[in-house]
């Protein structure tokens, strides 16, 4: 069961929304709470830094492709990093460990193709949600997103795709 | 502006040449010579080797206007400001030390044959670095780590850097006779050396110490010199030793840590902590300036007049007799036909003198008479004489022979040297006027040589031979040289290669210690720091665009208030401010570099070494505000940076409270 860390990063490199969760897809073993991420504490405390460091690569990769989805751009100690960049220069970063249990490991090839696609879907819909949030006149760019509704919908998305 | 701060790769390159790729000169002194020298210095707990050893590093202990001329095979003469040598005990001693430390406890003469030992002990390295980190700070600590990993005295068959190039007998003119000297030389020659060691290439040399106050004219000593030359065919140098009063013209501090291995350092630290007697295990010894000057002069004479010409001559002879015929058309034809028509598979396995292959696969060495062994030495000596291109081509030639003989240790070591000599050739200072190698060459170097060779040798060292430390040493050296290459030619695209190898290095260290479930903290911290340094130096800008970088660096300390526009009366609060890094967006890796630095800081934090933490914090100031706890995201209380800053503040509070 993979664990995920999803973050939306604003234009000043500031995280505006964070979500940690684990995959709902494969069978839940019963011991742990479903959807609770399995990152070890030492990884947890650097997760925002990992996504922050991925910005270097994102900014480099954005010039070389036409699509918003940048795909898998980096890996850090067995954590894969996928990214998506929006028209307004908002970055969506997803860090995940491929084989669950918090240790390192390479993703199995059968899983990979499918994963890439669902992550792309996830990013696209997350972007839609963000745009809806941006339409709110009381919200301005780079503010933290605190809406419980946004959070709820994001979790539904996570459950649907990852 | 120098950001991030770290050990410059060129310094690492220099110390690599100084500590690893320099000739070994073994020293053997008679009892009389030792006592004469001790009397001269006025210190009775010291050995002649201890005094000579630091002078081997003639970059540090130089004479006035010293110049070393080296002529290569193409008869091009280059001059160098220094040509370090390593003074070591004679080979029989080196070999017996190695034997003593090997657990198997074999008898004295079957040395270094068969099973190979690890190069160094990783846990001792960790202990040493932990101890030194209290004293040694900043980038010097990484340098210490680097030097300790590359310094070794292991005599192995597949690498001749630690085989002595010269043997010096130090005798006392007044008490030692010619017969004594002859006996010493004969005894030395009769020692049962390892079968791969080529005794005949050794330059036998004599240092004659004499006391000028005891004889009237030096012509007698010179007569003695000619006698030695005539009867024993050995050159000599005379060194006057008077009794220097301590107060006369001051004394000079001589470092004792020069070129010492990890074990020696640990032993010295142990002695220091238990020492009753002051002079045992000291880091420095005092030596009278007069003696200091004359020793420098004499050792310079020895190296420039005898050692370098001897090595040049040997290299030329081997090139003529072995390498050139091998490279010629007939030579190639001959070697192919030998392979095709040699059906007798069993004839060459056991006998080293066999004409077909002189590889002894039982004990893993080539016999000293084998051309393969000599060629390897030829290549090694050309590295020592700083002819890296020639060395590379030689390594390339012999590699095939080793592969044919399945001499895996030789193959791996030669692959290592191929990479090293290639990059050394590229980064040679006198070459630097040459233009940057083009894209295709760079790709070839990386994809056809560096990467496959590294993979290959890691398999050999780890799986075939179970010698992880050799692999670690290779990685450490190659990483520094790659960094050096990147810096010389501005190749940022290679930093991922360096990063990958550094990560590999960390996992190698971990795997080495895995059975004993020990933890590496200092080494880990140092390696993380190096990754941070590598990425911080990785900037995808042409030289002429570097000014963009300085614009960014000037604006680095983050100010949250945007600059006010004068024309606008009412600034628009919703307008996004311009980013400072707009010029270099996506072209630098400062943020990636910072996370590695943070990991390194965390290791040091756990070790409670705040000096190192403060030094490393300077390297992330471009990305994060390091002065106080802000309201930015990275200072959130569940993140590592908050933990670090908090600890520092606490520590400051404690130290303020103390004072």
UniProtKB/TrEMBL annotation, chain A:
Superkingdom per UniProt: Eukaryota
Gene Ontology cellular component annotations, sorted alphabetically: cytoplasm
InterPro entries assigned: Longin-like_dom_sf (IPR011012), Sedlin (IPR006722)
One matching Pfam family: Sedlin_N
GO biological process: endoplasmic reticulum to Golgi vesicle-mediated transport
Annotated protein name in UniProt: Piso0_004789 protein
Automatic annotation (TrEMBL), chain B:
Pfam families membership: TRAPPC-Trs85
Any one cellular-component term (Gene Ontology): TRAPPIII protein complex
InterPro entries for this protein: TRAPP_III_complex_Trs85
Protein name, as recorded: Piso0_005734 protein
Species of origin: Pichia sorbitophila (strain ATCC MYA-4447 / BCRC 22081 / CBS 7064 / NBRC 10061 / NRRL Y-12695)
High-level lineage: Eukaryota, Fungi, Dikarya, Ascomycota, Saccharomycotina
């Amino acid at each position: 069961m993979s664990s995920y860390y999803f973050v939306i990063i604003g234009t000043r490199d500031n995280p505006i929304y964070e979500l940690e969760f684990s995959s709902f897809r494969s069978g839940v073993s019963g011991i742990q709470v479903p959807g609770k991420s399995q990152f070890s504490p030492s990884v947890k405390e650097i997760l925002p830094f990992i996504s922050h460091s991925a910005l270097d690569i994102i900014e480099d990769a954005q010039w070389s492709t036409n699509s918003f989805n940048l795909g898998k751009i980096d890996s850090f100690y067995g954590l894969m990093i996928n990214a998506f960049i929006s028209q307004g220069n908002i970055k969506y970063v997803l860090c995940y460990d491929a084989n669950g249990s918090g240790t390192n490991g390479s993703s199995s090839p059968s899983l990979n193709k499918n994963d890439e696609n669902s992550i792309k879907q996830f990013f696209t819909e997350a972007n839609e949600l963000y745009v809806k949030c941006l339409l709110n006149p009381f919200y301005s760019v780079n503010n933290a997103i605190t809406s419980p509704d946004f959070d709820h919908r994001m979790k539904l998305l996570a459950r649907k795709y990852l | 502006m120098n950001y991030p701060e770290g050990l410059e790769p060129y310094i690492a390159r220099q110390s690599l040449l100084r500590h690893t790729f320099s000739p070994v000169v073994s020293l053997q002194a008679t009892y009389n010579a030792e006592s004469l020298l001790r009397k001269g210095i006025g210190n009775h707990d010291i050995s002649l080797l201890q005094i000579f050893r630091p002078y081997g590093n003639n970059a540090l202990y130089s004479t006035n206007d010293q110049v070393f001329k080296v002529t290569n095979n193409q008869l091009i003469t280059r001059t160098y400001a220094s040509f370090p040598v390593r003074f070591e005990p004679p080979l029989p001693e080196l070999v017996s030390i190695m034997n003593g430390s090997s657990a198997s406890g074999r008898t004295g003469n079957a040395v270094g044959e068969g099973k190979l030992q690890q190069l160094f002990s990783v846990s001792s390295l960790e202990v040493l670095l932990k101890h030194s980190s209290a004293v040694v700070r900043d980038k010097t600590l990484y340098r210490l780590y680097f030097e300790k990993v590359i310094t070794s005295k292991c005599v192995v068959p597949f690498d001749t850097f630690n085989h002595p190039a010269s043997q010096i007998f130090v005798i006392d003119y007044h008490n030692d006779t010619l017969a004594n000297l002859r006996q010493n030389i004969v005894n030395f020659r009769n020692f049962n050396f390892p079968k791969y060691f080529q005794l005949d290439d050794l330059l036998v040399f004599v240092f004659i110490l004499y006391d000028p106050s005891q004889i009237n004219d030096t012509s007698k000593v010179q007569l003695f010199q000619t006698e030695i030359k005539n009867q024993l065919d050995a050159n000599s140098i005379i060194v006057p030793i008077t009794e220097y009063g301590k107060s006369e013209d001051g004394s000079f501090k001589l470092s004792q840590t020069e070129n010492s291995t990890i074990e020696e350092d640990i032993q010295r630290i142990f002695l220091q902590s238990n020492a009753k007697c002051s002079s045992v295990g000291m880091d420095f010894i005092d030596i009278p300036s007069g003696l200091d000057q004359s020793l420098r002069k004499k050792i310079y004479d020895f190296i420039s007049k005898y050692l370098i010409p001897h090595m040049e001559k040997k290299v030329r002879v081997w090139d003529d007799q072995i390498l050139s015929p091998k490279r010629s058309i007939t030579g190639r034809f001959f070697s192919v036909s030998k392979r095709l028509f040699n059906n007798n598979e069993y004839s060459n396995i056991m006998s080293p003198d066999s004409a077909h292959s002189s590889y002894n696969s039982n004990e893993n060495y080539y016999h000293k008479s084998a051309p393969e062994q000599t060629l390897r030495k030829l290549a090694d000596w050309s590295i020592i004489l700083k002819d890296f291109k020639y060395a590379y081509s030689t390594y390339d030639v012999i590699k095939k022979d080793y592969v044919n003989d399945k001499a895996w240790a030789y193959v791996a070591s030669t692959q290592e040297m191929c990479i090293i000599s290639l990059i050394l050739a590229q980064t040679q200072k006198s070459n630097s006027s040459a233009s940057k190698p083009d894209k295709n060459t760079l790709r070839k170097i990386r994809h056809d040589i560096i990467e496959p060779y590294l993979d290959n040798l890691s398999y050999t060292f780890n799986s075939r031979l179970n010698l992880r430390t050799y692999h670690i040493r290779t990685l450490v050296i190659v990483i520094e040289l790659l960094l050096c290459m990147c810096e010389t030619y501005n190749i940022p695209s290679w930093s991922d290669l360096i990063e990958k190898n550094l990560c590999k290095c960390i996992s190698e260290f971990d795997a080495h210690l895995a059975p004993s479930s020990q933890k590496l903290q200092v080494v880990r911290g140092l390696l993380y720091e190096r990754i941070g340094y590598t990425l911080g130096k990785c900037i995808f800008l042409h030289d002429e665009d570097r000014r963009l970088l300085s614009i960014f660096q000037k604006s680095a300390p983050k100010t949250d208030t945007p600059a006010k526009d004068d024309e606008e009366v009412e600034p628009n609060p919703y307008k996004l401010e311009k980013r400072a890094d707009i010029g270099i967006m996506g072209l630098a890796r400062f943020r990636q570099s910072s996370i590695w630095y943070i990991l390194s800081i965390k290791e040091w934090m756990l070790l409670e070494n705040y000096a190192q933490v403060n030094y490393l914090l300077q390297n992330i100031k471009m990305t994060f505000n390091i002065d106080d706890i802000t309201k930015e995201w990275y200072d959130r209380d569940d993140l590592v940076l908050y933990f670090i800053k908090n600890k520092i503040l606490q520590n400051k509070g404690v130290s303020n409270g103390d004072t």
